[in-house]
Amino acid sequence: MAAPNTVDILDVTGRWSLNRTLSDSLEDTFALQDLPETENAPIRFSVKQTVRPGGFDSSNEYVLDGKTRYDTVPIFGEVSATNSYVTADAVTVEDTLHRGIEYAKGQQKVGILEITTGVHTGWASQTVWGFERIDGGRHLCKYAITTKDDQKATARMVFDYLGAPEAL
């Protein structure tokens, strides 16, 4: 389902689901990260994802201040991550895999830049989060460029908006 206009990159509060039909295959990305193909649904904002198969929950908090933080993720091991907002002039067509992101005229912060590395595994991923209009609807998208040694994989992940967060 498309995201309402009230949801933007400054407030992505809600429930989201990876749309496998609109998203690219993650097989090449997972191969560079030494992972088998899985059913993975990859200010400050929090993300809780359930990974199947494997059946574990992963909660991540993204602090968007450009500082590097370290965490241990069950499928990746130790990772370092740097997260920050980005402006329109800082996002290239290559960053969004030649698709571009949608934002309101005059909006300063148009996306989220996430730079993650596998500390002991040698892969690195540069990801831009932003909104893209697909088939007339706005979708939160994650554009990932993953490298390891001289190999490179790209993938666009498209998320459907499921509604407001459920009460705890």
Uncertain spans, ≥5 residues at pLDDT below 50?
39-46, 49-56
Query: Topology as H/E string?
Result: EHEEEEEEEE
The count of strands amounts to 9
From the spread of the alpha carbons, the general shape counts as: globular
Main beta-sheet annotation: 7 strands, antiparallel
- Averaging pLDDT over every residue, what do you get? 84
In order across it, which strands form the biggest sheet?
Answer: 1-9-8-7-6-5-4
Radius of gyration: 15 Å
Give the helix tally. Answer: 1
Helix content, binned percent: under 10%
Q: What structural category characterises the helix and strand content?
A: mainly beta
Task: Give me the oligomer status.
Answer: single chain
Report how far apart the termini are. 23 Å
| Beta-strand residue fraction | over 45%
